[in-house]
Amino acid sequence: MSRLRYSRHARLRLGSAALLAAVPMVLAGCGAASSSDESSDESIKIGVLLPYTGTFGLYGKPMEAALRARFQVAGNAVDGHRVELIFEDEATDPATAVSKANKLVDQDQVAAIVCCATGAATLAVGPVLAERGIPQLGPIPNPDGLSDFKTAAVAAPTAGHDAGKLGTYAATKLGYRRAVVVASDFSYGHEVAESFQKAFTTAGGTIVKAVFAPLGTNDFGSYLSQIPDADVTFAGFAGADAVRFVQQYDKFGVKKRIPLIAHGPLVTELVLNQIGPAAVGVGAGFYYSSTLSNPENTRFIETMKAANPKFVPSHFTAGAWATGSVLLDAIHRAHGDVRDGEAFGKLIRQTKIDAPWGVLQFDQATGYAIAPTYYYEVVSAGDGLRHKVVGEMA
Amino acid sequence: MAPDQVVLQLTIGTSFGLLLFLLASGFTLTFGLARYVNLTHGAVFLVAAYVATSLAKQGQFVLAVLAAAGTGLGLSMVVYLVSRLRWSKLGADHLSQVLLTFGALLVFAELARVAWDGLPRSLPEPRFASGSFVLAGVSFPRYRLYMGAVALVLAAALWWLQERTTFGALVRAGVDDRDMLEATGSAAKPLFAAVFGLSGCLAGLAAGLGAPVIGASMGQEFTVLVLAFVVVVLGGPGNLTGAFVASLAVGLADAFGKALLPTFAEFTMMGLVVVVLAWRPAGLFGAPQT
Hints:
By secondary structure, chain A is an alpha/beta fold.
């Protein structure tokens, strides 16, 4: 009897240990999409660091799909040279990103690395790749700080750039004189708030009040009750904060008093329909909207939707797509010889292509993209919400 | 501060404080009765919130809240059963509990991320509670009053359960002296199971009722856990009255902090903890540790 009991316990113990050990392994298996296509010695290898796990983990797979799709359109080759993508998980973590970047260079011998979707990871990888002479290409708006590295480039304008354009536009074209600024209390929020504020006051407007709310604020009610009379509110929030802020801005009746404008991510396609009717009428300044009408945006969305009918376009995937276009074009101009990292980095900066948001080229001095910035409004259309592009901001 | 502003902040703080109570009451019960630090609480809330937001169709609100409560109950029982496999070790050792439940928290949260793509989601409020009314010259969302009222009713029911029923008497006896309870012939284990279930159910209810206000999003597993810890530490482990008072205090401190000192709003809650613990190290209503 006692032996029986013991063995049952031991089995349960073993079972539970195996279960606990297996779950993270399974998860790691789904998450880290470290994969490589069949490699040949002649093929050009491009490393891609994206977040598949951690806070930004949701962006990895869709961005990988967009990059793969762009390369597939080109037949995964440039002028007969095979191009191979090698993906690694940066795990929303700068330290992981750096070690994966080293792995891609040492082990896989990649010619360039697309990095990253996480601002901190991008900045951490920057000096490492610059020292090794490997070109780095950022796929989405990354923070300032890569300008010092000659081999680095970012295929999107900085968040501050777009917020600054909106500041000027709000004071001149939209005719607002007094603005309230409400933003997230971390680097992104401060960057867009400061840029908006600077441009808005330079163009003759005044900032009545600026409030910064902690990341992950659940209840904006008390902040909203303190918003003084003004012509407009500028908001700088992203993700779940954006959803709650826009909803509560409406619920607490502020929207009826003061119109709301923002930097793009507040009402990006990824959160728009979760916000619901509260988002109608919100204006945004950004370099991308899925409703932009140009042939490249149509090609991007149609290609992606053909593979996945539920695909929701956003600047993350549009950026990954455009990054693919930049690489293909630079490899073409290098005649397939990308062994010299500095020369390849220079060619990347000289790229001028059609991106889903219009012409994409790079500032030769900083490496950051020069792209148009649009002003659009949220309108309700049929069963959901969508952007209505008003025009390009000067 | 003008009187109408005071009324407004009181209302905002109270409605949020009541939600906090629901969120933390289950955590304080497990902590107090089983001396079990169940960190999974945050992830139970997260998964339940995502389940609620999946039933976002108009007219399904009650169903969504019930589904969230059921999810909470189910996940909590999973944690209980896993814990039971090594109860002799886990029952007495806080570090092992923390390790196990933190691992389970990460697993639950990761599963939620895979299942719901990691995107933030929200639940539309029910039609009867939508819209706003004017309070102190400012629009105030009607749903928050309903949420506060429901939380208050649940708090009263919980109080009745703990103070007026045999089950409650056994739970209170377990909080005070588990050995003595077992010596009188009442087994503590089924009681633990019931408290685990109740705790998860309360976390699920909080997630469902709170979904129209705070929604579901990754990272919530930690923010919710921190809030629950603050309430438990302030109120004293296992003490529902303490948790109730502490929740309201945190809600009000948060509301007035954001309104008066927006730059330091993040610190008002923790400032409250520091002050209270300096004054009463066992929490407002906690018995002194022996």
